Amino acid sequence: MPKEYLGEFEELVLTLVAALQEDAYGAAITDEIESRLKRGVNLSAVHVTLYRLQDKGLIKSSLGGATNERGGRRKRIYTITSAGLAMLRAMKEARIDLWKMIPQLKTSGV
Amino acid sequence: MSRFQNLALRFLHSFCPPDLVEEIEGDLLQRYGRDAAQYNESRAGRRMLWNAIRFFRPGILIRNKTNFSLNLWYMIGNYFKVASRVMVRNKSYSAINIFGLAMGITGAILLFLWIQKEFSYDQFHADKDRIYKAWSRNTIDGQLQCWDHTPRVLAPALQENYSSVEEAVSYADYKAAYLFTVGNTRLMMNSGAFTEPKFFTMFSFPLVKGDPTKVFDNPASVVLTESFAKKLFGDKDAFDETVTIGESGYSFPMTVSGIVKDLPSNTDFHFDYLIPFKFMEDLEGADTNWENSSVSTYVKLKKGSSLESFNREISGITKKHSKAGNTTEVFLYPLTKMRLYSRFENGVQAGGRIEVMRIMGILGVCLIVIACINFINLSTARAQKRSKEVGIRKVTGANRSSLILQFICESVLVALGAGVLSIMAVYLTLPLFSTLVRQQLSLDLQNITFWGAAFTCIVFVGIMAGGYPAFYLSSFNPVKVLKGSPLRFGSRNFLRKFLVVLQFGFAVTLIFSVVVIQRQLEFVQNRETGYTKDNLIYHYMTGDIGKNYAAYKTDLLQSGAVESVTKTNSPITEGWSNTWALGWHGKDPQSKILIDRFYIDEDISKTAGLKIIAGRDMNLTKFPSDSTAILLNESAAKIMGFKNPINEIIEDSGIQWHVVGVVKDFILSSPFQKVRPMAIMGGKGWFTVVHIKLNSNRPVQESISAISKLFTKHNSAYPFDYYFVDQAYNRKFADAKTTLTITTVFGSLAISIACLGLLGLSTYMIESRIKEIGIRKVMGSSAMNIVKLLSTDTLKPILIALVLFSPQAWWSMNWWLQSFDYRISISPWIFVGTAAIIVTIAMVTIGSQTVQAAKANPVNSLRSE
Questions:
Q1: I want to staple B107 with a disulfide (CB 3.0 to 4.6 A). Which of A9, B100, B367, B600 is the partner?
Q2: pLDDT tens digits for B817-861?
Q3: Of B513, B439, B591, B395, nearest to B837 (Cα)?
Q4: pTM of the complete model
Q5: ipTM of the assembly?
Q6: How is chain B split into domains, by residue range?
């Protein structure tokens, strides 16, 4: 695993960039977090996180098309880099390893 | 787009890096669209604004690349170049601006150096936040009074009985003079103090030699300051050496157990040597009297102790210990507040020196404001001259912000010039100002903080002075100014007049104060003292003079150099003793009237020229019983309510004194206050001073040298130090004179700056009305009429200032006068005088130009168009 660590929110945003693919830009990611996780999130927070991930080289970006609903402004579409994907994968595996250490809990016997 | 959307986008643009702005805008708009569908437009707009505001965060802000483009640097260089050219082209105008600002800044710097010094008093002690001075509080004459002296026993009692006390020390400077002898060096010094062993662990006065915890382990030891040690021992090391300290016939060898670094000038402690109380108490016994507030007590509380609860604990300490039922309460007051906040009124903290400092601070700010007003007025008045330049710059593509920057650069340049001048001026005038305010002020030119602060302030002054003109000048419409249409001046004119009124308002207040202070000082100086000051000297009864007094006096009188001799307990210019414990027939037992005590042996009316208005003076030869005689002054006789005071009995400290006469009131302490009731008691008292009336028919120097010989004959070990009473009396006016000088200096400064501005304005006005004057003259107006026309315009704001600011000046000077019992009342003539002074100064300022303009030949001004 590389020396860089990701915070919980960073990991969340990175995952969504990977998941949304062609449609990964600030507002969409925010919408997605709000609707799927039922979690209030600040647009500026998502943007700042995206910029930070890009600085770390985990995602890259290019300007996409303009749409009417955006008042003619172009989107910045983010795509995950292979480093980002490796990072996600490593984190997921580390999680699973840790999960395995937890004794199987039984819900009976209450 | 809605208002909120606009606002949100504009706000975003103001801080967001350009490469991120598009996508963020897009996202914001997209959200807006969604919100608008879900709620309504206005709510969506508000949410959008809020979202935009939340982008104002470090994660976005630091992505701004700070790149001053070369272009901007180039332009700033250009601005300074243009600014310096403009300044050189209008030499008189730039000189007025620079000198005006320089005067204002100089005054302000001097004042702020002083204020800073006052605020630094006793702030250098390491534990200053835990050190307190003990105060006493009791009702006297029906008023709750506070004073910062306490009984000698307080410190040991606090130290022993209260767990939150870390250290408590007594400290007293009795101002008694001792003779210090080392080898052949003999010095009389009264600048020492008594204290206790823990003094040096409580306060941060570093010792050059000696252990701060052990210096007073041996009672027969003394701590000297470095410079005093040098005076006594020369270049020899004084530490552990012996110095002989003598007082009235006794002398004691003392070991120098420590040498303290010379005290900094920002402390209220003043001593050249320190002697432990223990030494004196081993000889005379300890003062265990809880009624006698004779020393200062300092207390250092343990960390975390609360002052309030401690004060509650100790308030009744005197009552608990006092056998005589003394009800004086004790409370602690922070050491750090002693310098500036130590005046109590009716038991409540009511200011102190801080009031003076506040006034000085306001004065400093006002001086700068007056100077800035000059700059603003001259720049806006001359706007027409710069309007073409502004037009051209705008047409060739300058936007308003760069024009503003340009004009600010100009004013900053002027302010920098003024700043450099004023730092030089401060450097030159600081020694003078230091003597004036009796403070050692210094300008620390090596200190980088000072330069930083100075630079920031000067730039700030530049922006303050240049800000408004910059906005105004940059607002011109290029089409209009280039077409040559005149600027509309209506509201600017009003603003300018208003600012001139403000300027002269300050000047009026200050000049008025100068006049009032001057009158008050003269009034008090001319007050009847009640005794004759001429040819009267006094000296202290040092060494053997007390023992040999009778023989010394006889010799003096026989020498012919002297008319009369009287010994007293204090110089006639100082009251050293007072009491409310005198008893007399018919006194209300509840009354606590403070009565001054003064002791004489005899012949006071002959020596000091006091007027006896009833009875007789004391005379021990004729009336040996006069050793318990007493003279009352008029006020005392009146307060005691005697119809015929002669032969009444007055009791003090267990002695019955019989009244032999009444003297006319004379000024013992302050000529500014009313004369307090006074009892002059006879030979049974204590004596420290000899007053000698010189023979007025002989030259003073001859008499003095004759007295000096007799003094040495009877007291060979001590030097003959004498003082003239009239000089001592004049020193009472030193404070008032200082106040007068300070007010005069700053008053003149204020009015000079204001007049500089006036000069600039009137020069400009005349210049721009030169054609009008020409036409008027051609049409038949006389030179006198023109002068009238031009000067009414200039004088109007000054007259308005006089009317508007006089009440406030009256009010503040009335407040100042309230602090004196003996004072003038402010008559309308003072207002008239102030007005006359100011109008005259203003007329002189603008006079020559106005007359010149009025006398000019109209042909010259009308010839060219």
A1: B367
A2: 988 889 998 888 888 989 999 999 999 988 888 888 888 888 888
A3: B513
A4: 0.74
A5: 0.86
A6: 3-61, 70-119+355-488, 128-338, 494-526+734-862, 536-731
